[in-house]
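WARN  no MSA supplied for this record, continuing single-sequence
INFO  ligand: cytidine-5'-diphosphate
INFO  echoing inputs
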Amino acid sequence: MPSSAFPRVIAIDGPAASGKSTVARLVAARLGGYYISTGEMYRALAWELLRRGVDPAADPAGVAALLPQLKLHCELRDGRPELVLNGERVPAEAVRAPEIAAAASVAAAQPAVRAWLLERQRDTARLGLVVLEGRDIGTVVFPDTPHKFFITARPETRAQRRLAQAGETAPGATVASVAAEIVERDRRDATRAIAPLRPAADAVIIETDTLTAEEVAAQICAQV
Ligand code: CDP
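INFO  complex generated
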């Protein structure tokens, strides 16, 4: 059977707060696959770095030196993949904090970090049908999958979505301040030398300003 006869990997990329995770969760639920957030892997690493007092901006060598001591993998719990770092469950809520997002984006520009996570991301395909969301799934992690999507929206729309998610913005944050933060993170993600944020040449681009997450998920499922 040709490998494309049954989807194994669905790649959903896009900028910060574009709704990737909500959409990817819906797609995974509809198609009976596993939802994997690769951003959560970068966030898990950033969480560990900050806990250990390693500043990824000031000390990239310290980050690279720490990687061999870390074991990160996805474990199924109640049928859902959960991230485990050195035997400890990564707290999905805590890693959503804005300072972790910023540190994740800094660490994500470092070649050693990307090489280390690439293997762990590819390894998730052993679970079965996986719906991965991130920045470089279609371009680097699984460039051979025919199911590639890039979802985006204007910064203000994305800032509104992010503000609606409790615990993901600083107290007193406004649409303007959150939009400025995500534009800065997108700039860093899109201009880095390796695996920059960009759609794969054969990705289906979906502008989501006027679409609900259900509508976007329905479009993706219909194409798959
Ligand atoms: O949820 P949100 O879109 O705000 O961010 P995320 O998907 O959790 O990703 C956090 C950060 O990890 C991003 O800003 C990127 O710098 C980095 N990342 C990456 O470089 N490559 C990926 N495949 C996924 C995330």
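The pocket of cytidine-5'-diphosphate is lined by residues 16-17, 21, 38-40, 42-43, 101, 104-105, 108, 134-136, 185, 189 (CB under 6 Å).
INFO  checksum written, moving to next record
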